[in-house]
Design goal:
The complex is a heterodimer. Chain A is α/β, with parallel strands linked by helices. Helix content of chain A is about 45%, strand content about 15%. Chain A has a 6-stranded mixed β-sheet. Chain A has a 4-stranded parallel β-sheet with strand order 5-4-3-6, sandwiched between helices. In chain A, helix 4 crosses helix 5 and helix 8 crosses helix 9. Chain A is globular. By secondary structure, chain B is of the alpha/beta class. Helix content of chain B is about 40%, strand content about 15%. Chain B is built from 12 helices and 10 strands. In chain B, helix 3 packs parallel to helix 4 and helix 6 packs across helix 7. Chain B starts with 10 loop residues before the first helix and ends in a 7-residue tail after the last helix. The interface between A and B is medium-sized, with 31 and 31 residues.
């Protein structure tokens, strides 16, 4: 069964495969943290299952994005020794990660940032030596501005999610998680463009074909309808979601990530509201002493939901990808309610 | 060993306490984050920094380790619910005390200095434990009254051998997480935690490892005690590290620190606050009292750490966003 699934995955022509992920693990190992998996008895009691949190908020640059960014930049340099630099569009964490990866590899970097991005993320990108160019907070403006930057600078565009090496890099998280927690029945992954979701799904399903991969989204993404129909049903032109989870504002999955998600991700998608996300952030901060940004708290909110509670009791051990912890101390959203 | 012949601790005491702690549902084995020097901006100093995350211990500080062993040392009749327990604490000990008793369906009283923030009382009452607020000078008297008149069992918040032996479990975990550790930095209030860790490490045979206590300059009780050669009573100045400012060093803590703790260093308020901010920036919620060890390393007062493997214990994380914002006003850069 394993063999058939792995074969099917390599035939399917996905943007990345387990070989690429496995190679990325070795490539990244000396450069990133093997982040810890944390647990909370209180969370287990509330969820009614054993919950394991992969704390990527403790990763270099404060989020999992460094995996994909570093893998892409290293591969780019390897294949193209003339490359001058890299560029991207990002609401924050990918931009920061790319800036850090570029600096590590001694390449120039430009990041196109929506003018609604938190100041702390803008400062962090500049802190790694990258140039910031602002755009309107729409997917179209991000894309158009980035294209202009690339043509002007000659820098190579590194997509936050629609890039083979980025997806493979994110997949290394899935490999670690499975190595760190025996017998995981499911992994809950926050989803935006789908790079993390696709990478983790590929890695996890290759190692454990029966594992369930659940996407956790801010309300309004509508991923479940798309997965059940097997079609991209999102409206055009691409929209940004109105959500407190500033890292999860892209409504649509990417062109490379969608085929992977369609095949490997469970059709039950866990949708959470801003209020649930804030409650989850507060819980993790107060009980687990982890600083988690809204996007990173979405999987926690997802497993606390009634929908998740109603899922099969066969799901005994569930892993959550806590994607990042980049939130300013003065922007912790539950402060005012106390 | 030198020192008061009545006050001594053996490795088997610590191992026994470790077994109690391991079997206790009240205590977890906390993670150690390895090789964090880069994230702390220390990559060029050649030091290897590892963070023992006791801020993630149950109840938000290391105190549960000691409490589990204290309660194990109490005679069975006191644990059947017929007697109550009493202690005095404004801070993390009182919180752990309340949580531990609540989990075992026991009742008790925390005598609290009246200047402690109101939310401390609320939190403890939330566990079904009574709180009595009074001037700090009245605390010991109130405790004694509860013992003699109400038949309560007193659990000392810091100067207790069972407590300190329980703390030793953390030292044993550190040795397992970082077997070739050279230096351990432990935030120091009453001195129980650092003494327990130091005793565990030295008695296990790793006598070349230096264990260093870190106190706020505003409350140098153990520091002063070592100068005096006896447990000191000091008048602490106001400090953000409220958990590290007892008015005196306990007798047991003093004796054990004398035997096993290599040095005591002091850190300033700004250094502590800066460490809190830096730790927040790498994703960890650490209260000022818990960040003193990191403050000591970053301020350079540990001396030459090049080529050394250091473990810094983050002793607690009970701090609110409101408090963090009052001390760390700027955005944290990541």
């Amino acid at each position: 069964c394993t063999r058939r699934l792995v074969d099917a995955m390599s035939v399917a022509g996905y943007a990345a495969d387990f070989k690429a992920i496995h190679e990325a693990c070795a490539r990244l190992a000396p450069l990133i943290h093997r982040t810890p998996v944390l647990t909370s008895r209180t969370l287990d009691e509330r969820v009614g299952r054993s919950v394991f949190l992969k704390a990527e908020s403790l990763q270099k640059t404060g989020a999992f994005k460094i995996r994909g960014a570093l893998n892409a930049v290293l591969q780019l340099k390897e294949s193209n020794s003339d490359v001058r630099g890299v560029a991207t569009h990002s609401a924050g964490n990918h931009g920061q990660a790319l800036a850090a990866a570029a600096r590590k590899c001694q390449l120039s970097c430009t990041v196109v940032v929506p003018n609604t991005a938190p100041q702390a993320k803008v400062d962090a990108i500049r802190g790694y030596g990258a140039t910031v160019v602002f755009c309107d907070p729409t997917p179209q403006s991000r894309k158009a501005t980035c294209e202009r930057v690339c043509s002007e600078t000659g820098q190579v565009f590194i997509s936050p999610y629609d890039n083979n090496d980025v997806i493979a890099g994110q997949g290394t998280l899935g490999v670690e998680f499975i190595e760190q927690v025996a017998d995981l029945d499911a992994i809950v992954v926050p989803v935006s463009g789908g790079g993390l979701l696709a990478g983790v799904a590929l890695a996890a399903k290759s190692l454990k074909p029966h594992i369930k991969i659940f996407a956790a989204e801010p309300t309004g993404k509508d991923l479940e309808r798309c997965l059940r129909a097997g079609e991209r049903l999102w409206p055009e032109p691409p929209r940004a979601l109105d959500t407190i989870a500033d890292g999860l504002r892209t409504q649509q999955l990417g062109q490379l990530t969608w085929p992977i998600a369609k095949d490997l991700v469970d059709q039950t998608v866990l949708s959470v509201s801003d209020a649930e996300t804030v409650d989850a952030m507060k819980f993790v901060f107060e009980r687990m002493k982890l600083v988690v940004e809204p996007s990173g708290a979405v999987p926690v909110a997802a497993v606390l939901s009634d929908r998740f509670r109603s899922l099969s009791s066969d799901i005994r051990k569930v892993g959550l990808v806590i994607s990042g912890g980049n939130v300013s101390v003065d922007k912790l959203p539950w402060m005012r309610t106390k | 060993m030198s020192g008061d012949a009545e006050i001594s601790i053996s490795f088997s005491d610590i191992q026994k306490a470790r077994r109690v702690v391991e079997q206790s549902h009240a205590v977890v084995r906390t993670p150690t984050l390895l090789h964090m020097q880069h994230r702390l901006g220390q990559q060029s100093s050649g030091v290897d920094i590892n963070l023992k995350l006791e801020n993630m211990q149950r109840s938000g500080s290391f105190k549960m380790r000691g409490l589990a062993n204290q309660l194990a040392g109490v005679s069975g009749s006191a644990l059947d619910g017929s007697r109550q327990f009493v202690t005095m604490s404004a801070g993390n000990y009182g919180r752990a005390f309340a949580q531990a008793l609540n989990e075992r369906k026991l009742k008790g009283v925390v005598c609290m200095p009246e200047n402690a923030p109101a939310n401390r009382s609320q939190l403890i009452r939330g566990y079904g434990i009574a709180v009595e607020r009074m001037p700090a000078t009245e605390l010991m008297k109130a405790v004694n009254r509860h013992v003699s008149e109400d038949g309560m069992t007193f659990l000392h918040p810091f100067d207790d051998m069972n407590l300190i032996q329980g703390y030793g479990s953390c030292g044993l975990e550190i040795l397992e997480d970082v077997p070739d550790v050279d230096i351990v930095l432990v935030c120091c209030g009453g001195g129980g935690f650092v003494s327990g860790i130091a005793a565990a490490i030295k008695l296990s045979g790793k006598t070349d490892c230096k264990v260093i206590a870190v106190e706020p300059e505003a409350a140098p009780s153990l520091y002063q005690s070592r100068i005096d050669g006896s447990p000191a009573t000091i008048k602490p100045r106001p400090t953000v590290a409220a958990g590290l400012a007892p008015p005196f060093t306990g007798k047991i803590c003093f004796e054990l620190a004398k035997q096993f703790v290599d040095d005591v260093v002091l850190v300033g308020e700004d250094e502590i606050i800066s460490a809190v901010g830096i730790l927040y920036g790498i994703g960890l919620v650490v209260e000022p009292s818990g960040a003193a060890g990191v403050a000591a390393l970053l301020s350079g007062c540990i001396g030459d750490v090049s080529g050394k493997r250091v473990v810094i214990v983050l002793t607690g994380g009970n701090v609110s966003p409101k408090e963090l914002n009052s001390w760390v006003p700027e955005n944290i850069e990541k």
